[in-house]
């Protein structure tokens, strides 16, 4: 299924289907789908929403890439959630404690975050490699434990600072900030949105152009064949998990260095789980993930717009769920449809006993 | 004869054929016996700890009751996972199905009483399961994608339904009105006697009495049904033709198909049952004595923990019961008494590790022995030099413990062979 | 060996006269991009052994799966015992008395023998004691020594096949399809199988038999149908037809012979094993015991042995997939015992694994991506950590050309190729980059005669150029024809050495199963690890 | 079948030795709401941004909603838009929400919950002519943001006194949902109040989750078991500040013989969904967000914010204790006496436990 139609048709179908589903739901509850749609579309032009969407998408994009790296290796890293949160806290604490020149400071914080993410991912990786502990179960546990460690760290007798009724880490000096791109009334684009783009490109190059990516994908597809081909599958588990954790460590950086400059008790959690959904939506492809991240961010912001016009905003969650489901269903349906079509074509072409040349399956 | 025997000095080697899996010649302990053994070990460790740390709380009937109540939803979700995954379908959507279950339980319970609530919970969970089945079985969608989507859908749909149906009654879109609960029962004369034993505070006897009493008082029909579902699941899955067919779909669906098994049907049944079980897990958060009803977000990741318990239990009902019990017990301890008891658990862990080290010593497996021994020493030092653990970390004691047990026990987990694989009729082989 | 009594209701009704058991007419089956069966017609008389011959991908398995209800034909009709039938699933076919032993075993590894046998036929005797007694009875009748509660994953290939046959018998099938049943068996086992088949034929069973080994086909079959590129091209009488004629019907080429040309063995040792020992990870049993072995440049050293006697372990230890417990491995004098698989490959070892799907290929990836596997650090497929995609593509084109890989292009996923073509691709890949040593495990298993000849040719050419080859094969003709020296492996030891010019297959077979008359010892060994208490409930 | 109660409060300790009752200082207890002055606010278009949970949460969102409802009645306000935060939303969503309200012409805008603090810090300067109010937090350097702070510790002090007087075991407990500074204020006041009334009293404290893991506000099951733990150890009066988990506290208390519970934020005795537990709710610590909201709207309508207090204390009726159910009738004089002492400044209530 290499055709462009095969790639683009499913998401379109899926979004249409999800929209239909939500329309019905809205009608049942007596809301006006037309005004809901108008509000959702209209919000993009209003105020800073468009830029906010891109900003959020950059965060989601990093989370989804982190998840996707694991997927390439057939590792299900649910732990991105815990990894990014812990990395954010440690980076905020360290960043708030050191004084470094502008630029170096920010770079230092980013490196710390990546290292912490990788280090926390190393735990499930090592447990898997040495003790054969399933990564799903260990990362579920570690996500919860990360919450405890964070709570411990932001205690006001540890590294926390009381801010009224909130707690935060010490504010990072301005030398550690990453300035955004001001777009006037449209808001400010995170400077680290470009980091997300860079990581996406790096991910693509790594997976498709390097020996490392080859070994990773080979080990993900068939650990046995990869081993026979000289790939150390255990090492690949370790490395890909560290890499995944490293990228996970970056997830909170656009917000931390571009807007908040401190980690708050109320800083949102859940990006890791969003990342899973988006990585799946984007089929682990960097461009697909980018599309998924933007769509997700758009839907997220729609909640505000819908709430404003009195439409139940829960519809957004329903929409996100049904889009994920219908996108993948649509891919399956379209793939089967194309296969059928090809079958018919070949059947007509090979009237006689031509050599049976298979053309099924396609390059990824 | 042109054959030159090169190793004539060797007598005929007596070893068996060299196929790769290790055919260990030792006899296997039957399942029920090893389960009893584990239970005995656990009770011994806990009551010894209770004795040495002076905390009767560790084995009090109250703790055990709490553990049971906390373990139930996890266990039911785990059973749900078991049914689906034994048929080859990964079910990460348990959480969403459980949420559907809580809503269904509250709705059915509010309208027609607890039994209807339980039924509604199962039906709502099963609906979630059905969606998962359609996506994964009919459309061959990646199982994890579908599961993630179901978690989102479960949360969204229940929020939406609550706004629609509960809000006008409870004035609160996030919760249901009060729901009638199941009555509870106690095994009367016996529990009174156990109570007197427990109150004696004698080592061993009182511990066992406390544990037994905790299991025998305030039992609701839902608790009973849930516990019974464990052996029922075992017998259905392992001792009935239906179960054999169902499991064969998770091991090698093409082989099953080649023997005339309708793989689709069994997978559908399994995943729907899985949803129903997860839904019951939701009911266990709504219909038990003292529970307020549906509340948005009340499942709090128990579906995931259930999945973890199932993996912990090596895709077996007994094992997952153990996983859920371990989790419920530790969580119960930390909730009831917090820092002190969790600190005492350190002591229990030391005892356990020492036992493990001795066991490895007998089996002459040096590395595991050294690791177990060293960890025991480390934990003991930690126990000795601290009075309590940071309170921020105690709520996560169950998670720590699960992780540590897994890492130490290093069991050889054996998931069903065809788990997560796509299957399409007539295209296999 | 005794024979099973038929369990069908019409037992012995027809001693094998003119009545037809199966008539397939005009069967057409299309897959995306392939017409697997094109208007195939086939008539099988009741009580005969009917052989199907054809190249890889000719459509034999597809035809049989259609007959067995696993695939629905696009066109055509099926008649069983004179009645037209329509099978919607194997359940219908089983009800009509058809059983099939698949080319790729259809067994669930994690279920017990008993469970595998009774699965789908629970209504006959349940899954408990009665079923167990029935299975034991069948096993006794057929002389199969199988513990019903053993997990199938612990069985070797021959035992697995026995389970497959039990499955068929348990269902009381009267028409039995055997798809390449002999590919994994040693001569004695083949003889046992044939004895059973003959005896059952006498009882009125009908067999459809598929094999690439033409001698076997002629030995067992009552009639032969040849399929080429999805259509029936003719029938033959096994009594009169020769291998050459059969082969020509199948492919239109000459029957190849594995006969080696002049010996080109040098005295330069390429691979040396010194006291190589391997212990199992869990319980420390010795899988390989103190092996000494030398393969010289220009030499093909063949290893004979019943599967499961350590050949796999030997190969994997040489490749560095397993770590030797003791002893040394030398490649051209350099000690490689401690280095990893990749380093060994870079040092010049090529590796044709026994299971191409699991160890040889990335099935969903295009051919050129598969070309890189094992060569991800070397030219022409890579350069300093970066993949050389153009180079990989070019070299894949070369392999496709030189090794006659039949494919529409190199962007096709490896899974889309037929087994023979997949194998040619692997052999081509492993002979790239001038290896000094080739480790070839069953290089032509399940491969049709044409591809087989080509692979032999390539191996011989490389040998002539100084390549050392360690050949493991269950195909004794291949072993005898290609090898300069043969060693026999039994229970992790090299127990005998033979000269391929003079030794007979029967002598080899005797050595492989542990000196003649010693077969009881093996049975005892097999009983060792059958653990009675082991149900599915651990 | 089990009949009703399933346990009693453990421990055999006797009732507390009570400290001397302080003197009642008369004339201090004010009533800001009873100004009687008729003010017209019908021209106001009010925007109300709730925290997670929104209207109907039976907690401070609901209290804010009650304030709006009263303001509609008293000030004649008609145009109100209510919007609600979602679980775990990011900062820019909060900002968008406030910005949307401001752009759509709502003025004043009330943000409920301290999680809006940073958002207001960003948004308020963009709309200098809009008056904002922020419940539970202050925003530095934004003159158009009026903080609505409450001294939860003062109210908690009084229910702490009540708990000490009511406890038969001289042992009380506190269940907090999530260990945040805000909830710690409740704990601190309760602790100090109980100790003030009975120096020997034992106070056990349990939080369900730690800062950052907000599931503790939504897990009645965990609350039930934590409460049972406290009861089994002998505590017989339990004060809860656990949001949605609070019901679990009441359920556990209701189960035990002779145990009592204290509600939080609004008068929980009167809440319909808690009717089943009415018997055990002896009082509630009232956090009068409604008073704050009405006062603020009144001030805006008068266009004079100078009278708004920095913190709404006992004095301003910002916090209080509930008397519905009459279970405190016997000790009301004591509580009033403590109240007057606090208002007079003779007792200073700490807002951090153990400080
Ligand atoms: N499920 C399938 N999907 C697509 N194509 C298939 C499928 N099964 C078989 N084919 C195609 O049908 C052709 C015939 O395959 P088949 O397995 O019947 O060959 P065969 O004669 O059994 O070969 P061999 O000797 O290797 O077993 C193959 O070339 C293959 O391309
Ligand atoms: N699911 C599938 N989709 C596409 N093609 C398939 C599928 N299953 C089988 N095939 C095709 O069927 C053909 C035969 O498959 P099979 O596994 O029988 O290989 P084979 O040629 O018999 O090789 P082997 O000798 O290893 O058995 C292959 O060419 C493969 O392309
Ligand atoms: Mg075949
Ligand atoms: Mg084949």
Automatic annotation (TrEMBL), chain A:
It is a multi-pass membrane protein. Its main location: membrane. The chain crosses the membrane at residues 57-76, 83-100, 106-127, 136-154, 183-206, 237-257, 315-334. It comes from Longimycelium tulufanense. This is ABC transporter permease. PANTHER family: ABC TRANSPORTER, PERMEASE PROTEIN, GUANOSINE ABC TRANSPORTER PERMEASE PROTEIN NUPP. It is found in: Cell membrane. Keywords: Cell membrane, Membrane, Transmembrane, Transmembrane helix. One of its GO terms (molecular function) is transmembrane transporter activity. One of its GO terms (cellular component) is plasma membrane. The keyword Protein biosynthesis does not apply. It comes from the Bacteria. InterPro entries: ABC_transp_permease.
Automatic annotation (TrEMBL), chain B:
It holds the Pfam family BPD_transp_2. The chain crosses the membrane at residues 35-55, 67-84, 90-110, 117-138, 144-167, 215-238, 268-287, 307-329, 341-359, 366-384. Residues 1-24 are annotated as: Disordered. GO terms for cellular component: plasma membrane. GO terms for molecular function: transmembrane transporter activity. Keywords: Cell membrane, Membrane, Transmembrane, Transmembrane helix. This is ABC transporter permease. It comes from Longimycelium tulufanense. The lineage of its organism: Bacteria, Bacillati, Actinomycetota, Actinomycetes, Pseudonocardiales.
UniProtKB/TrEMBL annotation, chain C:
The keyword Oxidoreductase does not apply. Residues 502-538 are annotated as: Disordered. Keywords: ATP-binding, Cell membrane, Membrane, Nucleotide-binding, Repeat, Translocase, Transport. One of its GO terms (molecular function) is ATP binding. It comes from Longimycelium tulufanense. Its main location: membrane. PANTHER family: CARBOHYDRATE TRANSPORT ATP-BINDING PROTEIN MG119-RELATED (PTHR43790), GALACTOFURANOSE TRANSPORTER ATP-BINDING PROTEIN YTFR (PTHR43790:SF9). GO terms for cellular component: plasma membrane. It is found in: Cell membrane. Residues 22-254, 271-516 form the ABC transporter domain. This is Sugar ABC transporter ATPase. Residues 517-538 have a biased composition (Basic and acidic residues). It is a peripheral membrane protein. It comes from the Bacteria. Pfam families: ABC_tran. Signal peptide: none annotated. InterPro entries: AAA+_ATPase (IPR003593), ABC_carbohydrate_import_ATPase (IPR050107), ABC_transporter-like_ATP-bd (IPR003439), ABC_transporter-like_CS (IPR017871), P-loop_NTPase (IPR027417).
């Amino acid at each position: 299924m290499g055709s462009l139609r095969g790639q683009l048709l499913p998401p379109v179908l899926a979004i249409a289907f999800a929209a239909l589903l939500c329309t019905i739901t809205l009608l049942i509850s007596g809301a006006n789908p037309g005004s809901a749609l108008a509000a959702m579309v209209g919000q993009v032009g209003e105020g800073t929403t468009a830029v906010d969407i891109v900003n959020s998408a950059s965060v989601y994009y990093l989370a989804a890439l982190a998840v996707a790296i694991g997927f390439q290796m057939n590792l299900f890293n649910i732990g991105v959630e815990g990894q990014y949160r812990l990395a954010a806290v440690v980076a905020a604490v360290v960043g708030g404690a050191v004084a470094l020149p502008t630029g170096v400071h920010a770079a230092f914080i980013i490196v710390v975050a990546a290292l912490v993410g990788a280090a926390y991912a190393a735990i499930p990786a090592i447990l898997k490699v040495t003790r054969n502990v399933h990564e799903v179960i260990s990362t579920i546990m570690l996500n919860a434990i990360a919450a405890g460690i964070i709570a411990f760290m932001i205690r006001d007798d540890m590294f926390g600072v009381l801010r009224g009724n909130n707690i935060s880490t010490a504010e990072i000096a301005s030398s550690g900030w990453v300035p955004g791109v001001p777009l006037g009334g449209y808001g400010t684009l995170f400077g680290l949105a470009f980091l997300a783009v860079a990581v996406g490109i790096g991910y693509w190059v790594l997976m498709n152009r390097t020996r490392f990516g080859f070994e990773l994908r080979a080990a993900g597809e068939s650990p046995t064949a990869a081993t026979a081909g000289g790939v150390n599958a255990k090492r690949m588990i370790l490395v890909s998990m560290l890499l995944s954790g490293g990228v996970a460590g970056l997830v909170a950086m656009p917000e931390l260095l571009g807007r908040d400059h401190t980690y708050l008790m109320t800083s949102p959690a859940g990006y890791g789980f969003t990342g899973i959904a988006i990585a799946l939506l984007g089929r682990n492809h960097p461009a697909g993930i980018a599309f998924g991240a933007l769509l997700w961010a758009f839907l997220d912001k729609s909640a505000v717009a819908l709430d404003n016009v009195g439409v139940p905003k829960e519809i957004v969650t329903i929409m996100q769920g049904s889009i994920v489901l219908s996108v993948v269903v649509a891919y399956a349906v379209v793939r089967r449809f194309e296969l059928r079509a090809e079958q018919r074509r070949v059947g007509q072409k090979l009237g006689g006993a031509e050599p049976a040349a298979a053309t099924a399956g396609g390059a990824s | 004869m042109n054959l030159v025997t090169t190793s004539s000095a060797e007598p005929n080697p007596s070893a068996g054929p060299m196929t790769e899996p290790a055919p260990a010649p030792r006899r296997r302990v039957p399942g029920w016996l090893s389960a009893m053994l584990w239970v005995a070990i656990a009770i011994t460790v806990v009551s010894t700890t209770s004795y040495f740390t002076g905390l009767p709380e560790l084995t009090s009937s109250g703790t055990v009751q709490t553990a049971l109540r906390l373990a139930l939803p996890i266990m039911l979700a785990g059973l749900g996972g078991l049914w689906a995954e034994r048929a080859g379908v990964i079910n990460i959507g348990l959480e969403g199905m459980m949420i559907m279950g809580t809503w269904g339980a509250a709705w059915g319970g509010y309208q027609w009483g607890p039994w209807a609530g339980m039924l509604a919970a199962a039906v709502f969970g099963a609906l979630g399961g059905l969606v998962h089945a359609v996506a994964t079985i009919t459309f061959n969608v990646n199982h994890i994608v579908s599961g993630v989507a179901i978690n989102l859908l479960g949360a969204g749909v229940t929020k939406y339904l609550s706004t629609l149906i509960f809000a006008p009654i409870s004035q609160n879109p996030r919760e249901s009105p009060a729901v009638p609960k199941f009555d509870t029962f106690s095994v009367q004369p016996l529990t009174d006697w156990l109570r007197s034993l427990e109150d004696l505070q004698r080592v061993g006897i009182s511990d066992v009495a406390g544990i037994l009493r905790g299991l025998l008082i305030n039992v609701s029909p839902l608790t009973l049904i849930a516990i019974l579902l464990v052996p029922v699941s075992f017998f259905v899955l392992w001792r009935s033709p239906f179960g054999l067919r169902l499991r064969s779909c998770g091991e090698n669906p093409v082989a099953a198909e080649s023997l005339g098994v309708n793989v689709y049907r069994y997978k559908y049944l399994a995943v729907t049952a899985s949803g129903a079980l997860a839904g019951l897990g939701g009911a266990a958060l709504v219909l038990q004595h003292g529970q307020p009803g549906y509340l948005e977000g009340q499942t709090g990741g128990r579906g995931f923990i259930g999945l973890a318990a199932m993996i912990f239990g090596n895709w077996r009902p007994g094992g997952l019961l153990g996983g859920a019990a371990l989790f419920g017990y530790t969580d119960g301890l930390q909730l009831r008494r917090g820092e002190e008891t969790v600190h005492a658990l350190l002591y229990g862990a030391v005892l356990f590790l020492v036992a493990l080290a001795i066991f490895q010593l007998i089996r002459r497996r040096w590395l595991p022995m050294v690791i177990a021994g060293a960890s025991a020493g480390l934990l003991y030092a930690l126990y000795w030099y601290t009075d309590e653990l940071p309170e921020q970390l105690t709520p996560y004691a169950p998670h720590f413990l699960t992780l540590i047990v897994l890492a130490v026990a290093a069991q050889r987990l054996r998931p069903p062979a065809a788990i997560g694989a796509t299957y399409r009729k007539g295209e296999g082989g | 060996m005794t024979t099973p009594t038929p369990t069908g209701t019409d037992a012995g009704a027809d001693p094998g006269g003119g009545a037809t058991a199966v008539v397939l007419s005009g069967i057409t089956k299309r897959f995306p991009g392939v017409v697997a069966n094109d208007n195939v017609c086939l008539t099988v008389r009741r009580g005969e052994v009917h052989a199907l011959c054809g190249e890889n991908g000719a459509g034999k398995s597809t035809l049989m799966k259609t007959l067995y209800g696993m695939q629905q034909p696009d066109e055509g009709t099926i008649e069983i015992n004179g009645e037209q039938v329509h099978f919607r699933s194997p359940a219908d076919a089983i009800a009509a008395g058809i059983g099939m032993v698949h080319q790729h075993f259809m067994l669930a590894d994690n279920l017990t023998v008993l469970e595998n046998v009774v699965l789908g036929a629970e209504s006959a005797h349940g899954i408990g004691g009665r079923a167990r007694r029935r299975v034991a009875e069948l096993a006794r009748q057929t002389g199969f020594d199988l513990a019903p509660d053993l997990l199938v994953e612990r069985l070797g290939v021959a035992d697995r096949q026995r389970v497959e046959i039990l499955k068929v018998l348990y269902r009381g099938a009267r028409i039995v399809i055997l798809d390449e049943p002999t590919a994994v068996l040693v001569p004695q086992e083949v003889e046992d199988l044939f004895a059973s088949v003959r005896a059952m034929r006498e009882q009125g069973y009908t067999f459809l038999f598929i094999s690439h080994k033409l001698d076997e086909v002629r030995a067992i079959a009552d009639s032969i149908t040849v399929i080429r590129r999805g259509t029936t091209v003719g029938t033959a009488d096994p009594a009169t037809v020769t291998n050459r004629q059969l082969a020509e019907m199948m492919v239109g080429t000459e029957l190849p012979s594995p006969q080696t040309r002049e010996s080109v063995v040098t005295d330069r040792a390429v691979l040396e094993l010194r006291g190589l020992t391997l212990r199992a990870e869990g319980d420390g049993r010795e899988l390989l015991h103190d092996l000494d072995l030398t393969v010289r440049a220009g030499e093909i050293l063949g290893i004979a042995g019943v599967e499961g006697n350590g050949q796999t372990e030997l190969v994997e230890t040489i490749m560095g997939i397993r770590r030797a417990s003791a002893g040394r491995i030398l490649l051209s004098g350099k000690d490689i015992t401690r280095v990893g698989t990749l380093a060994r490959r870079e040092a010049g070892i090529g590796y044709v694994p026994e299971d191409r799907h699991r160890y040889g290929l990335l099935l969903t990836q295009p051919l050129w991506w598969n070309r890189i596997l094992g060569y991800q650090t070397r030219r022409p497929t890579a350069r300093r950590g970066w993949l050389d995609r153009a180079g990989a593509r070019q070299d894949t084109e070369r392999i496709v050309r030189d090794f006659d890989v039949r494919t529409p292009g190199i962007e096709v996923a490896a899974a889309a190729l037929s087994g023979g073509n997949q194998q040619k691709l692997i052999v081509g890949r492993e002979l790239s980059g001038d290896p000094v040593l080739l480790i070839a495990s069953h290089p032509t298993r399940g491969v049709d005669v044409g591809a087989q000849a080509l692979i032999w040719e390539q191996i011989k050419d490389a040998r002539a150029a100084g390549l050392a080859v360690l050949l493991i094969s269950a195909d004794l003709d291949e072993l005898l024809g290609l090898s300069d020296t043969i060693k026999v492996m039994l229970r992790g030891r090299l127990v005998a050495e033979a000269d391929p010019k003079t030794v007979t297959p029967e002598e080899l077979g005797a050595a492989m199963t542990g000196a003649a008359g010693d077969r009881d010892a093996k049975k005892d060994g097999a009983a060792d690890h059958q653990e009675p208490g082991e149900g599915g409930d651990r | 079948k089990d009949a009703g109660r399933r346990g009693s409060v453990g421990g055999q300790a006797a009732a507390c030795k009570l400290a001397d009752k302080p003197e009642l200082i008369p004339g201090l207890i004010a009533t800001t709401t009873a100004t009687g002055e008729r003010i017209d606010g019908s021209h106001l278009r009010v925007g109300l941004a709730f925290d997670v949970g929104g209207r109907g949460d039976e907690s401070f969102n609901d209290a804010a909603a009650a304030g709006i409802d009263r303001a509609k009645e008293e000030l004649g306000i008609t145009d109100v838009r209510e919007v609600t935060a979602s679980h775990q939303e990011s900062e820019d969503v909060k900002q968008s929400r406030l910005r949307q309200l401001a752009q759509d012409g709502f003025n004043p805008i009330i943000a409920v919950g301290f999680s809006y603090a940073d958002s207001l810090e960003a948004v308020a300067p963009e709309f200098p002519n809009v008056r904002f109010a922020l419940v539970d937090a202050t925003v530095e350097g934004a003159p158009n943001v009026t903080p609505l702070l409450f001294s939860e510790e003062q109210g908690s002090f009084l229910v702490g006194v009540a708990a000490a007087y009511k406890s038969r075991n001289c042992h009380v407990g506190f269940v907090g949902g999530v260990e945040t500074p805000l909830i710690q204020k409740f704990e601190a006041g309760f602790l100090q109040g109980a100790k003030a009334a009975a120096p020997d009293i034992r106070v056990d404290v349990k939080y369900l989750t730690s800062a950052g893991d907000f599931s503790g506000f939504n897990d009645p099951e965990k609350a039930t078991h934590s409460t049972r733990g406290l009861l089994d150890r002998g505590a017989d009066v339990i004060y809860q500040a656990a949001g949605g988990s609070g019901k679990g506290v009441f359920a556990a208390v209701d189960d035990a013989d002779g145990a009592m519970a204290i509600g939080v934020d609004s008068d929980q005795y009167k809440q319909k969904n808690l009717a089943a537990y009415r018997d055990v709710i002896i009082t509630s610590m009232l956090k009068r967000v409604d008073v704050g909201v009405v006062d603020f709207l009144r001030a805006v309508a008068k266009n004079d914010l100078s009278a708004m207090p920095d913190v709404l204390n006992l004095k301003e009726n910002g916090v209080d204790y509930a008397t519905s159910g009459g279970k405190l009738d016997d000790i009301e004089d004591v509580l009033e006496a403590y109240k007057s002492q606090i208002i007079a400044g003779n007792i200073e209530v700490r807002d951090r436990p153990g400080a």
